[in-house]
Amino acid sequence: MIISISCIPQKHKVVQAYAALVRRLTVDNPSPEIKRHQITWSYDSERLDLATLMNILESSDAESLAEGNEGFSVDTGYQLLSGEWIGISIYLSGKLYKNGLDVRYLGSLQITTEYSDLYHSVKLKPRFKNKAANENNPKFSWGYEGMKPVLNQKLIQANQSADALFLTACGLLEPEDNSYIDHAAMYYRYGWLSPLTNPMIYHRNPVEFARDFERIYAEYHYGISIPLLLNSGIDIWQLTQAEITDLVTYLGKTDSPVKNYPKTYKLLCKPHDILPEQKESDIINFVESLDPETVKKLSKLSPDFIKQALANLEQELPEIHSYDFESRGIVLTSGVLMSVWRAYQYLAQLAALELGK
Question: Looking at the whole model, is its pTM more than 0.85?
């Protein structure tokens, strides 16, 4: 299973953000494997060394790469807090690369690693789904339904390593603010769906956590891809049906709203060892409660309200950690096979109390 981190850079800073990302993640491995891809990924792609790549990314016309049909991949090593090394890949996709699929659904900048590498020290025990006719050959399902993390020190260490990778990707562990990244999310193999399904999420501007309620609504009810709603200025309440249809139709296919396949939400928000009282239906009940009037109010929450609420988050939600980097933004993280969805529920509940005064 792949774990991905997608980053949305500042406008007209895509290539600069990629160059900074590559520098951060290759500092301890100056000889990564680098390829330049034309149109789509292939084994015949042009191989580059790090110095050549950086010259390309730092050239005067480099930003035009963000609009083109090329892609770059950097395969390198990343050292975990335990001292162990894992493999990661760092991608830049032009808007026309792979017919624009990557930019549309994942964003222009992406980092991937194997789940088994990042969380290899966490023991997972199978949860039997049903029994076969032969009792000696029980059937069980691997994946979200078939894995249950064992709560131990290794899980804590693995989560901390995942946090460190995400914070490094966002450039938040650097002494200077030169990442050019405004938004980022970590997600599992299903892709960058609603903010509710992310185990980690970052916004440079805290008010974006309020605007996430509009993104949640637009994806759940319309099927509009999350990357299209970041740094775009789209007002979802002013969209006509024709405009919505245009946004969710690509290459002759129409994206289905999450409302039509809620199982995706349930898989990521199943009851967990840490949260035995949580039910699969909780997240659906929450997202169904976000009617337009409620979402419009929540999307206008002030940065001060959000910062104060998230500062007190861990007292109420032990599975979610909040990092406040002040002017550089806020990060929410959760544990393995979990998501930060309850942070949004918490914000909504606090806002209801505040607005009810």
Answer: yes
